[in-house]
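Hi P.,

Sorry for the delay on this. The queue was packed all week, but I finally got your sequence through. Input first:
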Amino acid sequence: MPPAKKRPRAYDPGKTRAAVLAQFGEVRRAVRGLTPEQLASPTRLGDWVVRDLVAHIGMALAAVSRLLGEAEPARQDARLSDWPAAIGADAPAIAGTARHLAERHPDLDAHLADVERRFTADLDAHPGTRLLPTSAGALPLADYVVTRTVELVVHTDDLNAAVPGLDVPLDRQALAAATRLLADALAAKAPGGSTEVRIPPYAVVQCVEGPRHTRGTPPNVVETDPLTWIRLATGRLTWPDALAEAKVSASGERADLANLLPLMA
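Then the structure:
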């Protein structure tokens, strides 16, 4: 008899909203102190400079307003775990829009403040069940806000990498939500129960086809920390490099995730 389907992970909308705003606030505080030279510094994201990256971080919240402005889909036809694999198609448009926004808004702090105001107003005005036409398909607003934690955590890490010594903090709740969503995306991409992926203290998922583990120590185990996991899942760190740098441990013949990563880029 096949195992029962696991219920989708539930997220508390209030906690998710607070996490998004907390992480966005950390970025805003850091951006206020950046010099013109730092804003013109290169990033690890192609030809983007820091100013473009900051504008893109603003887009993470502005996307909610944009999607609310479109017609509401008739029914939900996507799962939250579908989102990471679907956003790659948006990459070319996102790159151009970020640079255009950076040019239009020389006062980045004022721009981010306006984005934040619109985001909070939108969440106040619409129920979490309101469907949005996302790149993954129709998702409830409350689920889409969870995806904003991934965008903010990933790009805060990009910002820290681009500006030595900046060290923008990662909000614990935002990091937890981002970790869990990307872990669930792995389980959706490679369904099964032969391998256990542990990302303490936030997530444990079963994945990869093969003999299902039922009790005792699993024969195939992958373990890493949340930020390393997010870097692996988004292509900021490769599987071989993570192993070589002892940032991930993998035991068992089905514990090699190289062919499954990244989940989004």
